[in-house]
Amino acid sequence: QVQLVESGGGLVQAGGSLRLSCTPSRRTFSVDALGWFRQSPGKERNFVAALRWNGGSPYYADSVKGRFTVSRDNAKNTVYLQMNSLEPEDTAVYYCGRGKYGSKSVADFGSWGQGTQVTVSS
Question: Distance (Å, rounded) from C-alpha 86 to C-alpha 88?
């Protein structure tokens, strides 16, 4: 069972930046995607961005296109989510999950980490 560990959350002012990290406990298979989702209190967990561990293009939710970038460092076995131009609406717990490349559905991802809180103040 792959365990995922997120880190990098925090408190930032609107317009600021944060970089989140997600490290699987072991190297995932090339067909897997690693995705970022976020969840606000009382709301559903929603897709943010994802990529395949080896090859394939990253893809994003419309709400973060042009502001967020998902990338990987194979040598460090880590996936990153660089978040720029943050808005108060980006405030949520951010989760990393392993799942099906190309999907934006939370039902197609699992092995969730514990999450990391991102708070954007206005």
Answer: 7
- How far is it, in rounded angstroms, from Cα 62 to Cα 36? 14
Beta-strand relationship, 78-83 and 18-24: antiparallel
Torsion over CA: 65, 44, 8, 57 (sign): negative
- In degrees, rounded to 5, the angle at the alpha carbon of residue 68 between the alpha carbons of residues 65 and 71 is 115
Is residue 28 pLDDT above 80, yes or no?
no
Nearest Cα residue to 83 out of 102, 97, 66, 104: 66
Give residues with Cβ within 8 angstroms of 31, minimum separation 6.
Answer: 52, 101
DSSP conformational letter for 27 = P
pLDDT confidence of residue 31? 52
Q: What is the DSSP string of 6-25?
A: EE--EEEETT--EEEEEEES
Is the pLDDT assigned to residue 29 strictly greater than 70?
no
Res 3: pLDDT: 81
- Cα angle at 85 between 112 and 65, to 5 degrees? 60
